[in-house]
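Section 3.1 - Work completed
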Amino acid sequence: MFFYPHCCKNIILSVKIRQSNGYFAPEMANQPDFSIIEQDLEVFEKRFREAVKSKAPLLDRITHYIINRKGKQLRPRFVILSARLFGPATISTFNAASLVELLHTATLVHDDVVDEAMERRSFFSINALWKNKVAVLVGDYLLSKGLLLSLDNNEHKVLHILSDAVRKMSEGELLQIEKSRKLNLDEGVYYEIIRSKTASLLASACGAGAWSTSMDDEITTKMMLFGEKTGMAFQIKDDLFDYGTADVGKPTGNDIKEKKLTLPLIYTLNKADKETKKKIIYILKNQNKDKDRVKWVIEEVNKAGGIEYAREKMLAFRDEALAILAGMPANEANKALEALVRYTTDRSY
């Protein structure tokens, strides 16, 4: 039995209600067939659980909570399948998958603190349950465990690949904050932000996986580009959810409320007449918490064709990723990767 913090009776009751309503069920309904890596995923799960273990009881309680509410785990799947393109998964493959998941989880914990988010994937965030100070320390702990996992196993190439991704993610986040304040974001800067914030980690996942079995720099570079293109498509798809009605774990219009200039909105601002553009910017700056005003902005984006434009760009990045994949060995892993890439753009949440 695990002790949870003081916010508790109502929170635990709410979590139990969520559990009984299926919130703890796997998130990848209609997912690609991962049967070829089923055993590999089991090995990864075991190694990941071992990787987060701590001698501190509080840390163990929190990591237990994190593991039991894990999401789609797309990145470890990309690591393993990228490895399987060039040979059977190795210990290096599982270490790389664990490192990717540790770094990804650490960034999510820190993001929730920065964004003051109380929920993540329909669960209470770490900072909501244990407060900001604990959440920051947990994120730091996960980051350090990932780095040590690589160093202890002499995985220096993988560590370099992933460390570069963490650097890019930080730069992308800061660039987005800077541009959101000034609201002067063009399409090129938007791509730079999502390439750093989202695509860099998926690129590193594919690159680290490929390296673990190929030990080939050229192949690793190509697979990183494949991951980057897939990550770009993934993020644009995520941005499109903000203009839909599906329950995707975040409120519709949330990016607008946070003054995030995503591709559909950037396109709309570029196409809008002077008066409409001025009104949209005013709402973003001063009325971004007003539901009716946010709804009006969403309607304007739809009317301007911003949704369709973003969708076309998303599919273009997807097709670029698939073109790179077509040049890789034609095997079961290749087929599964293709299905996984298509899932990132076809998913409904």
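Second construct:
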Amino acid sequence: MSLKRTNFQRVFLLGAVLLVLMFSIFPFIQILSTSLKYQVDWGNPSLIPAQINLDAYKELLGISTEEIELPETIKIMLDSPAISEEQRAAIVKKFKSNANVFPFGRYMLNTFVIATLTALLSTAIATFAAYALSRLKFKGRSAFSNMVLFVYMVGGVLLMVPLYQMSVSVGLASSVTGTLISLLLIYLVQTLPVAIYMLGNYFRTIPFSLEEAAMIDGYSRTEAIFAIIIPLSRPMLLTVMIYCFVIAWNEYLFASVFLKQYHDFHTLPLALQTLFTSKNAIWDRIMAASMLTLLPVIIAFTVANRFISSGGTEGGVKE
């Protein structure tokens, strides 16, 4: 039976792939389009803005240099002799205040710090755990490997209440620092299973003879890890780090419970949800904030894809 595709089959397959691709990326195109439109253009079904509007991005990033103009009614009121200088200054200050502006930069910094710490700690711990599971022989190794993956399969909704109760019972939830530590530990629990699984499978592709040769030269097992395993595993280590970063960057469920009362420490997913119901809920600002939140994830996946493809044979050294 011939396996060659006819021209019709090729065209049909290409059309199906393009249809799925357009269905997947259309929401992102719509977000970008709306974020670049002026308010008068929001009802326009065209994805191409009539005029590019970058005001929402400038406002969120804090680079807007436009001076806020006082309305004529406010100017007339300020000219009244019945208003003192202190009252006049207070009115101007209140009108030009940026207190109602969505503090996007602060929320992005919060998310970046938590996600970066999660990625670094999870990758460091997973490196030694994966090495032990792939190289060392000890009692209960198989059971431990299965338990690690079992933790990953349990949904976050089931763990949310008991984890929060544990945090409260040990006193961590009573302060901002303790709450952030609790959230970081939860993110580690979420990312470690797959990180260990990915690194363990990769370490098994590295010939053990390389470590034996290093030990013969006087290296200890720990020194051999840093001299042999880690240099050969850099593409996979970076991939795992990016994976952990993205998981922590996008996490909403636990952040909405643990950080609910600490508004200054909200992460971006939680902050975007509150933006929809606040007085700052303007469509171009919402979509611009969503686009800026997506940008690090897109960059991370682009970098990860490059290193996944190059890292597949990085450890394949012939013995």
